[in-house]
Amino acid sequence: MTDHPAVHPAVMQVDGLAAELLDEARHQHTRRTSRTLVTGTPQRVTLVALAEGTDLAEHRAPSAATLFVVSGRVPLHTHDQDWVLDAGQLLTIPPQRHGLTAHTDAAVLLTVALR
After folding, report:
1. Domain regions of the chain by residue span
2. Residues facing 59 on adjacent strands
């Protein structure tokens, strides 16, 4: 017997959902939208869609997180380093303040360890 809650595996078509969210983002005044795909005690996975030119201002980083670019091009920066990520690339987000800008319409998958 385990103390962990039951896990219900689900298969999601992330690229199709990313296209839907990008369409929504283009019509939002913030030019972005997101949807949490997985949530629970150990992790949270959020799909974020950003219309071209949209900024996510600098913010604190969680202790452990990754950013996977589903589509588009997204530069991520800290106070002393920059990365330009293209579709298919994964970055371990450094545990410091960071921000990003969508150089093109983009969708990213943010995974955060919650404990």
Report:
1. 14-113
2. 98
